[in-house]
């Protein structure tokens, strides 16, 4: 009798252990960084020679606490999503689909679908910039984590014209990597050139309509100046590019 009970216990334990491992293998291990609520001045001054009209005017934004992924979504992460959902992998760039590199050739909808699958979402444009600046720990850097672009990001000047493994450069003040360079990152907002002139001041969600969707951060085959934390770019939501990827965010549950 005791042997039988022990046998059943061991079988149940093995089944639970196997199921846990299977679940772990099918879901990416995302490292989340908490971005505490706070206010910041979004955009840049027109006196800045590198400041584009769509980055003006500087305006105060207040955000609630949220979390954002420490790294850009990688090829390995996205493979798990495709396997679990029977989705076809995107095109391989010329350097191949390397597991540790950010996934590219991703449309905005692809990014949204992945974010929903892992129980998150895309960051808003304001959340993205606040996190890139270092949140409430910001030191006011031009790029995400430094005034020296080469310390924090891969761009035309240093990348050899390809992506690189995530997390190789210096992180920003919050410990987030690659928010300047490596791959452009889709955000949730529609892109509208003059949105900053009328943006709400608290938790803005972007304009109701726009010229495609916004993406941020610059990438490996663009000039380093486009890695500035304020730089904005609009692309069609169905556009897929060999320099465009994403990272994910999620809400914080409050009592």
Features:
255 residues; alpha+beta; paralog of FGE (formylglycine-generating enzyme); four-stranded mixed sheet; three-stranded antiparallel sheet; 9 strands; globular
CATH topology of the largest domain: paralog of FGE (formylglycine-generating enzyme)
Rg estimate, integer Å = 20 Å
| Arrangement of strands in the largest sheet | 7-6-5-8
Our count of domains comes out at: 2
Biggest sheet overview: 4 strands, mixed
Q: Order of helices and strands, N to C?
A: HEEEEHHHHEEEEE
| Beta strand count | 9
- Poorly predicted regions are 5-24
Q: Quick check: average pLDDT?
A: 92
| CATH class category label of the largest domain | Alpha Beta
Helical segment tally?
A: 5
Q: Classify the secondary structure makeup into a structural class.
A: alpha+beta
CATH architecture of the largest domain: Alpha-Beta Complex
Structure description:
- It is a single chain.
- By secondary structure, this protein is α+β, with helices and mostly antiparallel strands.
- The protein folds into two domains: 1-30; 33-251, paralog of FGE (formylglycine-generating enzyme), CATH 3.90.1580.10.
- It is 23% helix and 15% strand.
- The chain contains five helices and nine strands, in the order H-E-E-E-E-H-H-H-H-E-E-E-E-E.
- It has helices spanning 2-26, 75-85, 108-117, 125-133, 149-152; strands at residues 32-35, 38-42, 59-63, 66-69, 184-190, 213-216, 232-235, 244-246, 249-251.
- The radius of gyration is 20 Å and the shape is globular.
- Mean pLDDT is 92; it is low at 5-24.
């Amino acid at each position: 009798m005791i042997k039988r009970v022990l046998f059943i216990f061991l079988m149940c334990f093995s089944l639970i252990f196997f199921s846990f491992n299977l679940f772990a293998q099918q879901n990416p291990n995302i490292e989340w960084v908490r971005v505490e609520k706070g206010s910041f001045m979004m955009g840049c001054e027109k006196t800045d020679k590198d400041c584009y009209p769509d980055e003006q005017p500087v305006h105060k934004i207040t955000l609630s606490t949220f979390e954002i992924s420490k790294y850009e979504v990688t090829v390995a992460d996205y493979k798990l999503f495709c396997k679990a959902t029977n989705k076809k992998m995107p095109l391989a760039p010329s350097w191949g689909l390397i597991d540790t590199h950010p996934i590219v050739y991703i449309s905005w909808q692809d990014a949204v679908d992945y974010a929903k699958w892992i129980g998150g979402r895309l960051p808003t444009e304001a959340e993205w910039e606040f996190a890139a600046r270092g949140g409430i720990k910001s030191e006011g850097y031009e790029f995400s984590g430094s005034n020296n672009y080469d310390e924090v990001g891969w761009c035309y000047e240093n990348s050899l014209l390809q992506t690189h493994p995530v997390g190789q450069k210096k992180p920003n003040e919050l410990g987030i990597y690659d928010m300047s360079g490596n791959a452009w990152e889709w955000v949730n907002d529609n892109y509208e050139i003059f949105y900053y002139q009328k943006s709400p001041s608290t938790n803005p969600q972007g304009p109701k309509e726009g010229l495609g969707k916004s993406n941020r951060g610059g990438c490996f085959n663009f000039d380093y100046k486009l890695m500035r934390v304020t730089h904005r770019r609009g692309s069609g939501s169905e556009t897929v590019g060999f320099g465009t990827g994403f990272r994910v965010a999620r809400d914080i549950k409050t009592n």
